[in-house]
Amino acid sequence: MSESEWSAHRARVDAMAAALADSEGPVRLRKSTSNLFRPRADSERTELDAAALNHVIEIDPEAGHADVEGMTTYADLVDATLPHGLAPAIVPELKSITVGGAVTGVGIESSGFRYGLVHDTVRELDVLVADGRVLTCSPGRRPELFYGFPNSYGSLGYATRVRVGLIPVSPYVRLTHTGYSDPEALFAAIGEECANPTCDYLDGVYFGPGEFVLTCAHFVESLPEDTRPGDYTWMRQYWQSLRTKDHDYLTIHDYLWRWDTDWFWCSKNVGAQFKPVRLLLGRKRLNSVTYQKIMRASRRWPLSLVQHIRPRTESVIQDVDIPIANAAGFLADFEAEIGIRPVWICPFVAPDDRFSLFRLRTDTPYINFGFWDMVRSSEPDGHYNARVEDLVAKHGGKKSLYSRSTYDETTFWTEYDRSAYKALKHECDPDGRFPGLYAKAVHQG
Length: 445
Fold this sequence. Notes:
Layout: H1 3-22, E1 27-30, E2 46-49, E3 56-60, E4 65-69, H2 74-81, E5 86-88, H3 99-104, H4 112-115, E6 122-128, E7 134-137, H5 143-148, E8 158-168, E9 172-180, H6 183-195, E10 201-208, E11 211-220, H7 238-241, E12 247-251, H8 252-256, H9 275-281, H10 288-298, H11 305-309, E13 313-323, H12 327-337, E14 343-348, E15 366-376, H13 383-394, E16 398-399, H14 409-415, H15 418-428, H16 437-443
Parallel strand pairs: 1-2
Antiparallel strand pairs: 3-4, 4-8, 5-8, 6-7, 6-8, 9-11, 9-12, 10-11, 10-14, 13-15, 13-16, 14-15
């Protein structure tokens, strides 16, 4: 790409930095898309408009990276890289997720057993901090900020540019779905694949006691004769196919977005598992952006069918990361105490233990368990989310902060490095213009 793209990028960043420098008092980011599943409290904070920072600046196939602006969605990034035979090393599962959001949060997908989490694949960042400066950081330049930015959720600054690592991909993937009844056997198979990878993508689903499906996906250059790739973008649901097929083929594009059409399986909460509803919505509306809009509206109006059928419920929307040796034990406790099904199973490794706000062990694979539903409850509000946090602690894991947290402040800072955070907060936001991490994660700041 030409210098003009870089010049236009710098102009957009300069405008945003000037707006921040010229404003006074507390600030938060205004954006058109968000995958935070905790309500934002009303506040007097000035909203900083970042909508213009949504461009792919440059793709460098030889270097194997792309420079993109922070509000660029992964859908746009994938569309830009696939013509080069490349994709981000980790492509979070929903089209509406932005690159900056996945870095300041914690992003994952089924290539994580090879490459780690999203932030493990980032090579360089530009971060806009509270006084309007833009700080470039990498493992060799301002490493404290580079390693402290993931899991900071906008409390230190905003990513204006991210250099994303890319991998070669093929036009198609071949999927093999293997059923397991024994969780120990499932996690043993996952452990072997993490130790000596033979496939390109790996994830699974827990449907209920004794019913697991593990999916291994391999790149292929072409399809077998008389074979058409599967289509789960309208009337058919990908997650249901796992229980009925041993093998499948998808284009690489449709594989990367296989979960987006039905937001995994959460579309059933608005009746989208029924064919008449899918027909009415149409292919273009079956996606995470639509469900995001419905979710926001349901905070004001009870649109979800679940809210009508089971009015006394608690929303439990969480992703948790458990060392693989403890995965079966965690799942058994989760089934007994929480009981949400299905549960996404996504293995990953932690190549680096220097990320101060999301420090993980490097000597073991982890299993990410994703569960997103409502639990019938007669308990005080927050009971089941607190129990999830207790189970994560019991089994030596760590929890993402994109959704509800109930930690008291002392417990919170035993999980996330307070001293490293305080030093970065002092450097990037000494006057507290951005919400603090604890306030934002627990009190919905």
